[in-house]
Amino acid sequence: MEKYLDQLAKAPPAAKFGGLAALVVMLTVANFFMAIQPTEENIARRNADRRKLDLELAEKSEIAQNLNERRREMDVLEQKLAEALTELPERRDMEELLAQINDIGKKSGLEIARVEPGKEFINGTEFFARIPIKMTVSGNYHEIAMFLQEMANMRRIVNVNNIKLDGATLKNEKVVLQSSFLATTFRFVEKKSVESPPKKRK
Q: b vs e for 172-199, b when ≥16 Cβ sit within 10 Å of the residue's Cβ?
């Protein structure tokens, strides 16, 4: 480069001008290939990487949003399932049920003379088992009616039928009736546990 500059200094003015122009062109081209072009390529590469990262971030955000929605849906379903299992539990839970019935009897002011749970049974291909409970209580008409109403309002499903009222007696200036009835509660049964009746052989 120094040799070229010495020759350029000794050259006539026209040659100097042409040489300077050529030198400027050479430096511009060299600057483009050595500095500007690599910088533009680097910027283009970075922009491409950024667009790729933006797309990945958008995809991940969408997945996360869908996951949160699925989790919220699962929470709602689990809550509904818990409520359904309260009304139709998977287990007999007879001790808990009988304790609740006993509390209702005390609050109603009557006496529970008999509580006799029976054997559960499944009717055909139903998805629930029936658990019969034979009961006998004594109290006035209002107390018995209140007791039956409170049983109907229990979270667990309990049906009462075959109600009989008899044996009216006077006790402490109160007409006391004896009532017997059949209370039926239910338990959820999975289909696989419901045995199909055996086929008759020809």
A: eeeebbbbbbbbbbbbebeeeeeeeeee
Q: Give the whole-angstrom CA distance, residue 78 versus residue 192.
A: 22
Domain that holds residue 176: 92-188
163 and 125 fall within a common domain: yes
Q: How many domains does the chain have?
A: 2
Max CA-CA distance within the chain? 145
Q: What is the pLDDT of residues 45-94, one digit of tens each?
A: 776 777 787 788 888 777 777 777 777 777 766 666 566 556 666 676 78
User: Does residue 201 lie within any of the structural domains?
Assistant: no
- Bridge partners of residue 176, in order along the sequence: 169
Residue 11: band (very low, low, confident or very high) from pLDDT cuts 50, 70, 90: low
* Residue listed under structure tokens 């402490």: 172
